[in-house]
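Quick one, C-alpha coordinates below. Sequence please?
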Protein backbone atom coordinates (compact mmCIF):
# COMPACT_ATOMS: atom_id res chain seq x y z
CA UNK A 1 0.00 0.00 0.00
CA UNK A 2 1.96 3.00 -1.19
CA UNK A 3 -0.64 5.28 -2.82
CA UNK A 4 -4.11 6.43 -1.75
CA UNK A 5 -6.67 8.73 -3.35
CA UNK A 6 -9.44 10.61 -1.53
CA UNK A 7 -12.43 11.65 -3.65
CA UNK A 8 -14.99 14.00 -2.11
CA UNK A 9 -17.66 16.46 -3.26
CA UNK A 10 -16.64 19.67 -1.48
CA UNK A 11 -13.63 21.32 0.11
CA UNK A 12 -13.69 20.29 3.82
CA UNK A 13 -15.40 16.88 3.31
CA UNK A 14 -12.13 14.98 3.42
CA UNK A 15 -11.11 16.82 6.58
CA UNK A 16 -14.32 16.17 8.48
CA UNK A 17 -14.39 12.54 7.44
CA UNK A 18 -10.88 11.23 7.04
CA UNK A 19 -8.04 13.69 7.77
CA UNK A 20 -6.94 11.94 10.99
CA UNK A 21 -6.74 8.59 9.22
CA UNK A 22 -5.00 10.14 6.22
CA UNK A 23 -2.39 11.77 8.50
CA UNK A 24 -1.56 8.26 9.77
CA UNK A 25 -1.23 6.97 6.22
CA UNK A 26 1.13 9.86 5.43
CA UNK A 27 3.17 8.98 8.54
CA UNK A 28 3.33 5.39 7.24
CA UNK A 29 4.85 6.64 3.98
CA UNK A 30 1.72 6.44 1.85
CA UNK A 31 1.51 9.03 -0.92
CA UNK A 32 -1.99 10.52 -0.64
CA UNK A 33 -3.76 12.62 -3.29
CA UNK A 34 -7.06 14.48 -3.07
CA UNK A 35 -9.63 14.86 -5.83
CA UNK A 36 -12.37 17.38 -5.01
CA UNK A 37 -15.34 17.38 -7.40
CA UNK A 38 -16.52 20.98 -6.77
CA UNK A 39 -15.02 24.14 -5.30
CA UNK A 40 -17.75 24.44 -2.70
CA UNK A 41 -19.31 27.63 -4.05
CA UNK A 42 -22.69 26.90 -2.43
CA UNK A 43 -21.11 26.98 1.02
CA UNK A 44 -20.67 29.86 3.43
CA UNK A 45 -17.90 32.42 2.93
CA UNK A 46 -17.13 35.93 1.69
CA UNK A 47 -16.53 37.52 -0.74
CA UNK A 48 -19.04 35.62 -2.86
CA UNK A 49 -17.35 36.52 -6.14
CA UNK A 50 -14.15 34.81 -4.98
CA UNK A 51 -15.71 31.91 -3.08
CA UNK A 52 -14.39 29.17 -5.38
CA UNK A 53 -10.81 30.41 -5.14
CA UNK A 54 -11.13 30.95 -1.38
CA UNK A 55 -12.41 27.45 -0.67
CA UNK A 56 -9.91 25.80 -3.01
CA UNK A 57 -7.11 27.65 -1.18
CA UNK A 58 -8.52 26.53 2.17
CA UNK A 59 -8.53 22.92 0.97
CA UNK A 60 -4.90 23.18 -0.14
CA UNK A 61 -3.92 24.60 3.26
CA UNK A 62 -5.85 21.82 5.01
CA UNK A 63 -4.06 19.20 2.90
CA UNK A 64 -0.74 20.70 3.91
CA UNK A 65 -1.69 20.37 7.59
CA UNK A 66 -1.81 16.57 7.22
CA UNK A 67 1.11 16.28 4.80
CA UNK A 68 -0.84 15.82 1.56
CA UNK A 69 0.82 17.57 -1.37
CA UNK A 70 -1.38 16.66 -4.32
CA UNK A 71 -4.81 18.38 -4.48
CA UNK A 72 -6.82 18.42 -7.70
CA UNK A 73 -10.24 19.86 -8.47
CA UNK A 74 -12.56 18.76 -11.25
CA UNK A 75 -14.04 21.41 -13.53
CA UNK A 76 -17.64 21.44 -14.70
CA UNK A 77 -19.41 20.28 -11.53
CA UNK A 78 -21.42 22.70 -9.39
CA UNK A 79 -21.75 22.54 -5.60
CA UNK A 80 -25.23 21.36 -4.68
CA UNK A 81 -25.92 20.04 -8.17
CA UNK A 82 -23.75 16.92 -8.39
CA UNK A 83 -25.44 13.84 -9.80
CA UNK A 84 -24.09 10.44 -10.82
CA UNK A 85 -23.29 10.80 -14.50
CA UNK A 86 -21.08 8.82 -16.84
CA UNK A 87 -19.00 11.99 -17.32
CA UNK A 88 -18.32 12.21 -13.57
CA UNK A 89 -17.46 8.50 -13.42
CA UNK A 90 -15.11 8.93 -16.37
CA UNK A 91 -13.42 11.99 -14.86
CA UNK A 92 -12.83 10.22 -11.54
CA UNK A 93 -11.66 7.09 -13.37
CA UNK A 94 -9.16 9.20 -15.33
CA UNK A 95 -7.65 10.41 -12.04
CA UNK A 96 -7.59 6.85 -10.68
CA UNK A 97 -5.72 5.70 -13.78
CA UNK A 98 -3.21 8.55 -13.44
CA UNK A 99 -2.67 8.28 -9.65
CA UNK A 100 -2.88 4.44 -9.55
CA UNK A 101 -4.00 4.28 -5.90
CA UNK A 102 -4.13 1.01 -3.98
CA UNK A 103 -6.70 2.52 -1.65
CA UNK A 104 -9.55 4.93 -2.42
CA UNK A 105 -11.47 6.78 0.30
CA UNK A 106 -14.76 8.50 -0.55
CA UNK A 107 -18.19 9.23 0.87
CA UNK A 108 -20.78 6.49 1.20
CA UNK A 109 -23.19 6.04 -1.71
CA UNK A 110 -25.75 5.06 0.95
CA UNK A 111 -26.95 8.12 2.82
CA UNK A 112 -26.89 8.32 6.60
CA UNK A 113 -29.83 10.41 7.70
CA UNK A 114 -29.27 12.95 10.44
CA UNK A 115 -25.49 12.66 10.82
CA UNK A 116 -23.69 15.93 10.09
CA UNK A 117 -24.07 16.60 6.34
CA UNK A 118 -23.86 12.87 5.66
CA UNK A 119 -27.26 13.13 4.03
CA UNK A 120 -26.01 15.69 1.46
CA UNK A 121 -26.98 14.37 -1.98
CA UNK A 122 -23.64 15.54 -3.46
CA UNK A 123 -21.81 13.24 -1.02
CA UNK A 124 -23.89 10.20 -1.99
CA UNK A 125 -23.52 11.05 -5.70
CA UNK A 126 -19.73 11.31 -5.44
CA UNK A 127 -19.59 8.03 -3.48
CA UNK A 128 -21.65 6.24 -6.11
CA UNK A 129 -19.72 7.78 -9.01
CA UNK A 130 -16.41 6.85 -7.34
CA UNK A 131 -17.58 3.27 -6.79
CA UNK A 132 -18.39 3.07 -10.50
CA UNK A 133 -15.09 4.71 -11.38
CA UNK A 134 -13.21 2.05 -9.37
CA UNK A 135 -15.20 -0.73 -11.03
CA UNK A 136 -15.61 -1.04 -13.91
CA UNK A 137 -14.40 2.30 -15.32
CA UNK A 138 -10.76 2.47 -14.16
CA UNK A 139 -10.00 -1.21 -14.72
CA UNK A 140 -12.02 -2.09 -17.80
CA UNK A 141 -10.21 -0.92 -20.95
CA UNK A 142 -13.37 -0.86 -23.07
CA UNK A 143 -15.93 1.12 -21.02
CA UNK A 144 -14.62 4.63 -21.75
CA UNK A 145 -12.92 4.82 -25.16
CA UNK A 146 -11.76 8.38 -24.39
CA UNK A 147 -9.58 7.03 -21.55
CA UNK A 148 -7.67 4.82 -23.99
CA UNK A 149 -4.43 6.76 -23.42
CA UNK A 150 -4.39 5.84 -19.73
CA UNK A 151 -3.46 2.34 -18.57
CA UNK A 152 -6.29 0.55 -16.74
CA UNK A 153 -5.84 0.29 -12.97
CA UNK A 154 -7.39 -1.94 -10.32
CA UNK A 155 -7.97 -0.44 -6.84
CA UNK A 156 -7.57 -2.91 -3.96
CA UNK A 157 -9.53 -1.20 -1.17
CA UNK A 158 -12.40 1.27 -1.02
CA UNK A 159 -13.08 3.06 2.27
CA UNK A 160 -16.52 4.70 2.56
CA UNK A 161 -16.93 7.45 5.15
CA UNK A 162 -20.36 8.52 6.46
CA UNK A 163 -21.56 4.94 6.05
CA UNK A 164 -24.72 3.94 7.91
CA UNK A 165 -22.98 0.67 8.81
CA UNK A 166 -19.26 1.33 9.47
CA UNK A 167 -17.10 -1.70 10.20
CA UNK A 168 -13.78 0.03 10.92
CA UNK A 169 -13.12 2.64 13.60
CA UNK A 170 -9.67 4.17 13.19
CA UNK A 171 -8.17 5.53 16.43
CA UNK A 172 -6.95 8.99 15.36
CA UNK A 173 -5.95 10.27 18.80
CA UNK A 174 -2.27 10.60 17.80
CA UNK A 175 -3.04 12.64 14.67
CA UNK A 176 -6.04 14.51 16.04
CA UNK A 177 -4.16 17.81 16.39
CA UNK A 178 -3.38 17.69 12.68
CA UNK A 179 -7.02 16.94 11.85
CA UNK A 180 -8.05 19.95 13.95
CA UNK A 181 -5.50 22.08 12.07
CA UNK A 182 -6.89 20.84 8.75
CA UNK A 183 -10.44 21.69 9.84
CA UNK A 184 -9.32 25.11 11.08
CA UNK A 185 -7.85 25.83 7.63
CA UNK A 186 -11.44 25.99 6.34
CA UNK A 187 -11.79 29.39 7.99
CA UNK A 188 -14.87 30.38 5.97
CA UNK A 189 -16.82 27.34 7.13
CA UNK A 190 -19.00 26.72 10.18
CA UNK A 191 -18.43 23.82 12.58
CA UNK A 192 -14.66 23.73 12.08
CA UNK A 193 -13.86 24.80 15.67
CA UNK A 194 -11.89 22.74 18.16
CA UNK A 195 -14.30 21.93 20.99
CA UNK A 196 -17.18 20.96 18.73
CA UNK A 197 -14.95 18.53 16.86
CA UNK A 198 -13.35 17.12 20.01
CA UNK A 199 -16.87 16.22 21.15
CA UNK A 200 -17.87 14.94 17.73
CA UNK A 201 -14.93 12.58 17.21
CA UNK A 202 -14.87 11.43 20.83
CA UNK A 203 -18.47 10.37 20.20
CA UNK A 204 -17.38 8.42 17.10
CA UNK A 205 -14.73 6.68 19.24
CA UNK A 206 -17.37 5.81 21.84
CA UNK A 207 -19.63 4.34 19.14
CA UNK A 208 -16.68 2.20 18.03
CA UNK A 209 -16.10 0.91 21.57
CA UNK A 210 -12.82 2.81 22.11
CA UNK A 211 -11.96 3.94 25.64
CA UNK A 212 -12.73 7.43 26.92
CA UNK A 213 -10.23 10.08 25.86
CA UNK A 214 -9.77 8.62 22.36
CA UNK A 215 -10.89 10.08 19.02
CA UNK A 216 -11.91 8.07 15.95
CA UNK A 217 -13.08 8.19 12.34
CA UNK A 218 -15.44 5.52 11.01
CA UNK A 219 -15.48 3.72 7.67
CA UNK A 220 -17.05 0.86 5.81
CA UNK A 221 -14.06 -0.86 4.20
CA UNK A 222 -14.45 -2.93 1.04
CA UNK A 223 -11.53 -5.20 0.17
CA UNK A 224 -11.60 -6.01 -3.53
CA UNK A 225 -10.09 -9.39 -4.29
ZN1 LIG B 1 -19.76 18.36 1.77
Amino acid sequence: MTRALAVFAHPDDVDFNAAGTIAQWVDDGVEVSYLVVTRGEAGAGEPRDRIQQLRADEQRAAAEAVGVKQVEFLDGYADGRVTVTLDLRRDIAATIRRVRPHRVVTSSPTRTWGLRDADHPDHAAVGEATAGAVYPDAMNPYVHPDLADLEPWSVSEVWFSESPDPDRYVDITDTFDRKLAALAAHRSQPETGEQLNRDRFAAVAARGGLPAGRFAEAFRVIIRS
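The chain has a mean pLDDT of 96. The CA atoms of residues 18 and 75 lie 23 Å apart.
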